[in-house]
Design a protein that fits this description.
170 residues; alpha+beta; 60s Ribosomal Protein L30, Chain: A; five-stranded mixed sheet; two-stranded antiparallel ribbon; 7 strands; 31% helix; globular; binds zinc ion
Amino acid sequence: MRVGYGWDSHEFKSGIPLRIGGLEIPHPKGLGGHSDGDVLLHAITDALLGAIAGPDIGTLFSPSDSRWKGADSSVFLAEALERVTSAGFQIGNVDSTLILAAPKIGPQADRIRERVAELLNIPADRVGIKAKTPEGMGTENAAIAHAVVLLEERPTGSRHTKSTRKATRR
Ligand SMILES: [Zn+2]
């Protein structure tokens, strides 16, 4: 088994869409910076990469590389997932906490959970989405995400493993 941890933050900016967990959330401000600013997917991507001692998201997808400007962050998550699979692991579960003053995540949490589970190809009851407001932290204009993942060795008898091994032998 492996554990992975990821953390990310982005600043709110007016006039751009807010994307959290691969979904557009109705809000007058979005998250600026690297790619589409999806703070939650970035934290989960880093947690997956960290669990297999891989390079971090900024190394794989440099913010200075114009290819990733405005990019859909699910691309980063897919790459991390591919590396996890290649390393012989599958996701046990993912847990996360978002810290932001607005909008309220509670009413959207189930939708975000479903979307993240879909992107990770795991059941929704293996994805934790929690949210808090930044009490006393002074980070009202930022969204912060923490994520942990548990990876399990992929069972050797599974179809995916067999086909992967055959392909490697050839
Ligand atoms: Zn980020």
